[in-house]
Amino acid sequence: MSEDTKTILKVENIHKSYGKESILKGISFELKKSETKVIIGPSGTGKSTLLRCINGLTKPDKGHIWLDGLDITTPGINIDNVRQEIGMVFQNFNLFTHLTALDNVRIGLIKVKKLPKKIATEKAMATLEKVGLAEKAYHYPAQLSGGQQQRVSIARALAMDPKLILFDEPTSALDPELIGEVLQVMKNLSESGMTMLVVSHEMGFARSVCDEIIFIEKGVIVEQGPPDVLFSCPKNPRTREFLHKISELYGES
Known about the structure:
Blueprint: E1 7-18, E2 21-32, E3 36-40, H1 47-54, E4 62-67, E5 70-71, H2 79-85, E6 86-89, H3 101-111, H4 117-130, H5 146-159, E7 164-168, H6 176-191, E8 196-199, H7 203-209, E9 212-217, E10 220-225, H8 227-232, H9 237-250
Parallel strand pairs: 3-8, 3-9, 6-7, 7-8
Antiparallel strand pairs: 1-2, 1-4, 4-5, 9-10
Helix pairs in contact: 3-4, 3-5, 4-5, 5-6
């Protein structure tokens, strides 16, 4: 298998319930190295739960998840080691408010990767440069716009050299005028070969960047395929209806 076609993430028959409510009902898909896939679907349909299962914040009731060939749902797996390989960008930034942008990015490099402070600082600064925020390195989150805070959280994930990055609706907490700067950073990452799984309503981003769209509703995959196919001729009437509604609500770009 060539490096370009290597499967980084394999999700097989994942189920998750909370009490009597079944959230995920047998989700299966694969993500190859350097691919970007976008998960879409109505609110409350299990998209965030799926990401939480992938990075080990939530334990699935049934099914398996492989990261680069390792079954991370195996009992006894060191989930902290797994999380070092999976970056996560949350909806609400999740930055440490008492730390500067630089410290937010380098803390994992020092505490988790055990890098010397000088090397961690150099790497953190280089990563902030990648997201266009080197000049804000010594600013605290309260001194940054929402878009800048989210770019710091992307830099924090990126600095750990993960095998893939998960994005959980990364622009939904942002004012409309700040969304573009975050999407541009994500687009740059995708084009540079980062493997990405993105939950988003940003159809313009999905159309221009992703390799495949996965439409989830009521805990199952309704339809999946390349964006040009899904946008132009979805096979499932429910997919067509959802895309029509979301383009009316959010626009297509």
